[in-house]
Amino acid sequence: MMLTTTTIKPTMAVPSTRHSTQPVKGTLRMGFTVTKSPPALVSPSQPTPSGRNLPLSSIDRKAAVRVLVDLLLLYERGDQPAKLLKGALSKALVVYYPVAGRIVESSKPGELDVACTGDGVWFVEASADCTLEQVRHLELPRLLPKDDLLPLPPPQVDLDSLILLLQVTQFACGGFVVGVRFSHAVFDGLGAAQFLKAVAEIARGLPAPTVAPIWSREFIPSPTNLPSPPPSPPQGLLPSFTAFPFVTCALDVPADSINRIKNRCMQETGRKCSNFDVVTAMLWQCRTRAATLEPAHHVRLGFAANIRHLLHQVLPQEGGYYGNCVFPVGVAATSGRIVNASLVEVVSMIRDAKERLAAKFLEWVMGEEEEDPYRVLVEYGTCVVADWSRIGFSEVDYGWGDPVGVAPLNDDNDFIATCIFLRQPAPMQGVRLWTRCVVKEHLAAFADQVMEFCQSS
Q1: Mean pLDDT calculated for residue range 17-40
Q2: How far is residue 337's CA from residue 299's CA, in Å, rounded to a whole number?
Q3: Is 184 among the residues known to form the active site?
Q4: Could you tell me if 306 and 412 lie in one domain?
Q5: What is the rounded CA–CA span in Å between residue 10 and residue 22?
Q6: Phi, psi of 173 (to 5 degrees)
Q7: What is the pLDDT of residues 296-351, one digit of tens each?
Q8: Do 177 and 304 lie in a common domain?
Q9: Do residue 275 and residue 186 come from a single domain?
C-alpha cells in the first residue's frame, strides 16, 4: 500500500520548500533514477577485540528500543563523498569496534548481547540522475522513495542483527545524501550522533575522534525486580495492536512565536521554560483539540529525557557513552483539561513532569515503580515526541559544511502518534516539526491550530 505524505507549512520557509497551508497529498515519482552498487562490508582498519559478547544495559534491552532508526542527512556539495566516508568509517570502527559486531541472543532468556565479530558495517554507494533542487531537497512529498536512499544488506543477511548501515547517494548537482540506519538497541539519539560526528571528524583529517567512546553498559543501573521481557510470539505471529493511518506532515514554528510564550511563562509563573517545553505544549494542545476526543478521555504525552547527568558518578565526566541513557517522562490529563487550559498551564504541566525526573528514575532503580515506565499505551490519545534539534545530527560535517537538512524516515509507524523536532533550515531559527500524529480527517484542524498559534501567540 502506498503511504501518504503531506506537506503543510503554516509559516514561510526556505525558497526550495512548498509554502501552501493546504495539505498536499500523495507520494510523487518524477521518473528520476537512483543506481545502487551492491552492498559491501566496511570493516575496522586495524585489528579489534573479538571473540566475546558484550551485554546490553537494562535500558538497551527494553522492547521499545529494539528497532532500526532511519534518517537522511542532506549536503549541498561533496567531492567523492562515498570514498571519503568509507575510509573514515573504517578508521572509526577501530575505537567503536562493537558497532562492527552483530546483535545476538544472550545466554539469558529474552536478552540481547553484541557479539564482537569485527564483521563490519554494510555500506552502499549510489548515484542519482537528478539534482537536489529537482527533488526539492527531499521536502515532503518526497520525489524519491525512501528505499532508494536507504541501505539494505544482501537478502540472506538478518537485518535485525545489524547495528549500523550507511548509504551515500551522489546527486548530479554535486550534492549528496547520507542514508543512516542505526539500531536503537545499541545507540540512543545522542550516541548515534556522537558516532556519526566521530566519522566526520576523521573524514576532516583528525587522527581520532575528539570524544573517546566508552561501552560501559554495566554501569547503567538494573532494577532488581525489572520484569523479564515478554516471550516472543510464535513464528509468523505478531502482537495485536490497533493501527492508525497517520499522515506525515512537516510544519515550521518560528522562533518569535516560541519566544513570546517563553516570555509569557516568565511573566505569569516566574519560571523559565525552554523551546522544547513551549513547542511540546503547543503540539499536545493542538493535536488534542484537533482529535475531538470526549472531554473525559485521558490523553498522554511522552518523551525520553537524557539522564547522563544523573549518572555522573559512574559515567566519565568527559562523555563518550553512546548507549541508551534515557528515561521516559510522561504527562497525562483529560482531553477536556488540555483543550481548555491556557498554553502556559500546559507548559507548566510539562515542566512539573521534567522536575520529577530524578525522583522517578530513582524509584525505578530501587524497584519501587509499580508499572514499567518504558511501556507505552498504544491508543490514539497517546503522543510521543523526540527532540532531534540539539542532539548533533545537524552538526555532522564531513568537510563541506553541516547538512542543509535532516529528515527522519518513520513513515511506517502506524501505532503511536509521534513528532520529531528538527532545526529549521538556515537562516531561520525556529523549530521544524516532523509529525505522524493525526489521521487524515484531523489533519486540516491540526494545521489550523498550529497556524493559529504561529499567528496569535
Answers
A1: 61
A2: 10
A3: yes
A4: yes
A5: 9
A6: -80, -5
A7: 999 999 999 999 999 999 998 889 999 999 999 999 999 999 999 999 999 999 99
A8: no
A9: no
